[in-house]
Amino acid sequence: MLNLSRARDNMVEHQLQRRGITDRNVTKAMRIVPREAFVSPGYEEFAYEDTPLAIEHGQTISQPFIVALMIEKADIEPNDKVLEIGTGSGYAAAVMSRIAGRVHTIERHAALAAEAKQRFDRLGYRNIEVHVGDGSRGWPKTAPFDAIVVAAGGPSVPQPLKEQLDLGGRLIMPVGDKREQRLLRITRTGATTFEEDDLGGVRFVPLIGVEGWTAEQSLYARAQDGKPVTELGLPEFIAMVAEDLPAIEDPAFGTLFDRYGDRRIVMLGEATHGTSEFYQARAAITRHLIEHHGFNIVAVEADWPDAAAVDRYIRQRSAQNTSDVFRRFPTWMWRNAEFSAFMAWMREANSRKADPRRQTAFYGLDLYNMRGSIATVLEYLDKTDADAAAIARERYGCLTPWQNDPATYGRAVLTAGYGKCEEAVLQQCRDMLQRQLTDSADAGEEFLDAAQSARLLASAERYYRIMYYGGRQAWNLRDSYMAETLGHLLDARGPNAKAIVWAHNSHIGDARHTDMGLVHEEVNLGELCRQRFEGETALIGFGTHDGQVAAASDWDGEMEIKDIAPSSIDSYERLCHDSRKPGFLLDFERDQALHDRLVEQRLERFIGVIYRPETERTSHYMFASLPQQYDAFVWFDHTHPVKPLTGAPKPEGTPETFPFGY
């Protein structure tokens, strides 16, 4: 049982007083106001974390220390009349109401204002008046105010707000663009005179309004060096709007993704299956979302049986060694140091949760054992028909939706010998599946695993036959299956279930806005989840310009460390590279100008487990609309390959069952 009263006291002592908050009125108010009443349902246990939390409409409830700092610097006294700009959840207004005589708070989102008012009513806070309107203009009807606190960043302090200060009144507001904001205190010293103090750097959502930023401009459609934004080239524009990435190991990296904490599904992509930065970044984001936003499912583009063995390991439900999992091609995709470190963190994090229902589960979304099935096909054909085996490898190698080279398929023309092998291969696959289901039953698998197996068994014949011949039907079957599996997992974990998905960009980006959907009539996981979980799904793509990647030249081939060719001159990747920024986040949801300027289709690069730089343009690019395909895009200009575990030394002190049995 959570002791929220104790957590509240700890917050005041450790987060406020130890950082220099000394105003007793402030600390007393923050001991009284229950912050858990101002967070979204299911987030109560995170209410007293030292971090901001996401709320509806892309807004946040500020970090407790920032709330305390702004109120203390506003020097609010009993009986003061206070104006707050940006009600949000209502927490800051509630704290000020325990000090001031009357608080007026303005919110531009009517739904947020209504919810805040309901919270105030439930708590019996009768000295707060909630208004819906343009906060950048203030609330002149009840001016002047002893203090004004603005919980959003503007390009400058609006003159109407300064004019609504009483003589001696204090105004606290962040000023600047998204790259740099300073918290200012403005004190009215006369009819037309004011003093200004700089209280340090901060980061807030934009102040939208006539005296702030317009919704279309967001924080960016202002002149830069005298040049209107509309005249900036796209690389310059990207450089201006991009949010710089902290170092991946910096806790601030995960905090940057708090904006997606209220989603039910967050999908994290990758432009390749073998880039270290993508795995490390996804792990950092996932850790933060689990710890601070209650996500309890991690689902990946991997075979169900292998992932199930890892799940038993991280939830300590079995002593089974994981040394045999993810042994099939491409082994480096999951048997790498970056992913193994994340698995170790999940096991340790779960061990701190006594209630198994609060532990984070790990699942594979892919067709029950796609790679095992392909291995079965190749093993049989290698023994019976070498030509058919060569054809199969070629077809599996180009089983990608971005493949535009007709010659690749031309090399894989089906022959009579290929057709003769069909029934024998299908029987091999059926036998393999039956053995796995029997083994699972003998091992005492839980109901969810058994139910998933039963679903696969019901459609196995169609699955194996389509997979054998490849093509668009195989892709659509695979991604539809993954979407259905994710839905079953969310249903099984209950109404509070929240999932993070790791998969390639080609799976998590909305196919309707790419050549996949527009030309090839392919669907994918991101598209299907956007449709089923409308408004509850965030799709986050990842990209790079150059570096090295772990990949193979052919299906079932050896892993190689390959140089990534510099991105195509007419691609989204080249625009990002030409911004001359090493790493950043583009948020298409928050900035309409960014969305509009990049919406026109351009080339986008996709590298899977196979990379053929010699045919890069036809083998690894397709046309897409980046802002429609994703909700956000994470960029690393220069990247490095994952570190395969084969032959790697086992970390000192780790158990024999350490992931993948070093």
What does this structure look like?
It is a single chain. This protein is α/β, with parallel strands linked by helices and 662 residues long. Strands 10, 11, 12, 13, 14, 15, 16, 17 and 20 form a nine-stranded mixed beta sheet that branches. Helix 7 packs across helix 22, helix 12 packs antiparallel against helix 13 and helix 16 (422-442) runs antiparallel to helix 17 (447-469). The protein starts with a helix and ends in a 23-residue tail after the last strand. The model is unreliable at 218-226, 402-414 and 440-445 (pLDDT under 50).
Keywords:
662 residues, alpha/beta, 9-stranded mixed sheet, 25 helices, 39% helix
Summarize the structure in short.
Strand 7 and strand 8 form a beta hairpin. This protein has 662 residues and is an alpha/beta fold.
Shape: elongated
Overall pLDDT:
83
Low-pLDDT runs: 218-226, 402-414, 440-445
Q: What is the strand content?
A: 15-25%
Proportion of helical residues? 25-40%
The rounded distance between the terminal residues' Cα atoms is: 38 Å
Give the number of helices.
25
- Radius of gyration over C-alpha positions, nearest whole angstrom: 28 Å
- Given the helix and strand composition, which structural class is it? alpha/beta
What is the number of beta strands? 20
Main β-sheet description: 9 strands, mixed
